[in-house]
Every structure is written in C-alpha cells, then in structure tokens.
Amino acid sequence: MAKSKDVRVTIILECTSCVRNDLNKESRGISRYITQKNRHNTPSRLELRKFCPHCYKHTIHREIKK
Prior knowledge:
By secondary structure, this protein is mostly beta strands. It has one domain (about 10-20, about 25-65): Rubrerythrin, domain 2, CATH 2.20.28.120. The protein is built from one helix and four strands; from the N terminus they run E-H-E-E-E. A four-stranded antiparallel sheet has the order 2-1-4-3.
C-alpha cells in the first residue's frame, strides 16, 4: 500500500542560535525537539520559543527538513 498524506506530520525543531554559532566553542551541540503539527492549520514552517540546553536560555527553534 502507498503511504497516505497524513494531516498530522512529525517535524523536527532546531535551535537557530546554535546553528549560527556552530564555530563557537561554548556551544557543545545543537538542540533539537521532535513534535507534530497539523498540515492544514499551519502549512508554513513552524517557529516556537523553546529552551535550549546548550545555550542555557530560551531561543527560537525552527522547523527543518528531514
């Protein structure tokens, strides 16, 4: 059977400040969260303020491609 187009899809949210400061030695990694979104309600990329354990503060996490 072919995979159907689900309304709710699993997405990955990635910290934007960790990605920009990739060469920064203070950051030991990239913070990522896994969540779900409704494709009909939010067709664009999702942005949420989440806590980043590598930056030790709340930062913007954006949806990335799998």
